[in-house]
Request: fold
Amino acid sequence: MGNRVIIKKHSLAIRWFHWINFPILAIMIWSGLLIYWANDVYRLGWGNTTVLKFFPTSFYKALNIPFRLAEGMSLHFVFMWIFAINGLLYFLYLLFSKEYKLIFPHKKALKEAGQVILHDLHIKRGLPPQKKYNAAQRIAYTGVIFLGIGALLTGFAIYKPVQLYWLCALLGGYEWARAEHFIITILFTLFFLVHIIQVLLAGWNNFRGMVTGFEVKKTNDIEIPNPNNLLPEP
Amino acid sequence: MPLKEETISKATLTRKTVIAFACFFLFLGACIFSWKWLHRQPAEAGALKPLRKVLNFNEKLFSNLVSDRHLAKTFPLPAAAPRVRVNGDAGLGGAVDTANYKLQVVRKPGDTLFIGMNEIKALPKTELVFDFKCIEGWSQVTHWGGVSFREFAKKYNLDWQVHQKYTGLQTPDKGYYVGIDNQSMLHPQTMLCYEMNGKPLPLNQGFPLRLIIPVKYGIKHLKRIGTIFFSNDKPRDYWFERGYDYFSGL
Reply:
């Protein structure tokens, strides 16, 4: 039999948004590091005990970060526009194409996400039925949209704290907004790490989907069900 | 909105996959090429030229926001730090002749006002407690006293001068110099400052007279003002020449 059934998973727009965001976010995090070095005050710890300093000297040295504040700022305040515009278009696309229905968590998302995690950790067998994304993915991908919104808001608050004083005040003031911006970056990085691991584990068919837009349906595979038939439309 | 399915031949599948991946690698290649191209561009005042252009665009965009209604947040007096952070001494090399110190204001080439500290202190005094922000990323609530630059300009009839685009300031030894757009110079919180925490400025804070301009990063708060001049072209700027944003507005 020479025919294959493909499942159209990611639209062309989604793939462009995704792959544009990848290098841009990398540049934002990199230039952010160059800026952060000039006042690297954050740490995990209490009192005089520091569990983890952001960041250890060896880390800066290995990546050649020190004394590049001006370069970091010039990159950050240029590429921020691409990050913002790409993110905004993505958000509008989700709304107008109704794709958000496949991404935003549904009612049982929390409970199901727990099942997904137990399954992924090989503790329990069986997955709840899903459409495009399972509940854990829905929560993660929606969370990362909020990270993007948060990065923009906290970023603009510390970029123009006098002109956008209301935004800065809303976020708890200048120093808080800077800390929040930093925490968001850490969360972005953690998301990225988990995302990479999951993509590696999910395999070629899934990764190819983000490039070609479709996955190839394996006819004798019960692990990848046809999302059309599984769930009755609400 | 269910995911659509389609049955295609194996050949079509291969063709679609190859085309998509060709585009994908082309895109990745274009990203890498653009990044390398960017870093091959000449620098303009320490920043890569394309980046500098966007920074100048940002300046145009955000200088429109500067207004009397957008004030830096002020704090009650007790919030001010007793020990004020000192971050730079460029331009503070030489000794100051306090007895004969005169602020020089160039009204036009060949026409310079010499203004003594007594005259400046005779002008209405304003005080300000605000969160001073360094471009490095730290900030500190500090207490300053002096004369509003707007008042100063009015008193010395600098009306025509401040209607030019920029004000330039430099230290007496010309070791440090800044250029500032006049919207920001005429912002109501901008002051020629001679007091910190209710006492005369310490030497390392720019005694006898410095600039306090809350709508800018600390790099623009020039210590020990020697000369003030006005221009429609951007006056030279110490940190701009070292790759930073000219505007540096908050």
Observations:
- Chain A touches chain B through 51 residues (CB under 8 Å).
- The radius of gyration of chain A is 21 Å.
- The first helix of chain A runs from residue 12 to 36.
- Chain A has a mean pLDDT of 88.
